[in-house]
Amino acid sequence: MAFMSTLTRPFVNTLKYLQWASHARPVVFYSLLLGALGPVSVVVVPKYRAQFGWKPAERIPVSYPLPDRPRSPVSGYDDE
Questions:
Q1: What is the 3-state secondary structure (H, E, C) of 37-65?
Q2: 33 within some domain
Q3: Is residue 45 in some structural domain?
Q4: Cα(33)–Cα(40) distance, rounded to whole angstroms?
Q5: How many domains does the chain have?
Q6: Does the residue 49 lie in any domain?
Q7: Gyration radius of the chain's alpha carbons
Q8: Rounded to an integer, what distance in angstroms lies between the CA atom of residue 16 and that of residue 8?
Q9: Per-residue pLDDT for the chain (80 aa), expressed as one digit of tens each?
Q10: Are 25 and 14 in contact (CB under 8 A)?
Q11: Contact 49/41 with Cβ under 8 angstroms?
């Protein structure tokens, strides 16, 4: 039985600290709560995003598509 209390002691202490912080220092409590939501949302959000019909945007082109015709030289400008 002493072995189990040794394993659960950090969790009990963490819960006691969170209970104390929620009353004595709510800023600390809510910042810990919001900080814990970040990693959880990495796992949860993509699944629900797909269920709501979200599709990724098209990839941005990395080159300009050239026309499929012969190129004529530019004329009419004062380049020469």
A1: HHHHHHHHHHHHHHHCCCCCCCCCCCCCC
A2: yes
A3: yes
A4: 11
A5: 1
A6: yes
A7: 30
A8: 12
A9: 555 677 788 888 988 988 998 899 999 889 988 999 999 999 999 889 989 998 989 998 888 888 888 878 777 776 65
A10: no
A11: no
Classify residue 51 as left (phi > 0), alpha (psi -120 to 50) or beta: alpha
Whether 42 is covered by a domain: the verdict is yes
Looking up tokens 């950090």 gives 10
Collapsed DSSP state (helix, strand, coil) of residue 34: helix
- How far is it, in rounded angstroms, from Cα 20 to Cα 7? 22
| pLDDT at residue 65 in the model | 81
Provide the token pair at 44.
């949860």
Q: Residue 46's domain spans which residues?
A: 27-53
Q: Which amino acid is at 16?
A: K
Give the residue among 50, 17, 45 at the shortest CA–CA distance from 33: 17
Residue with tokens 């709510």: 26
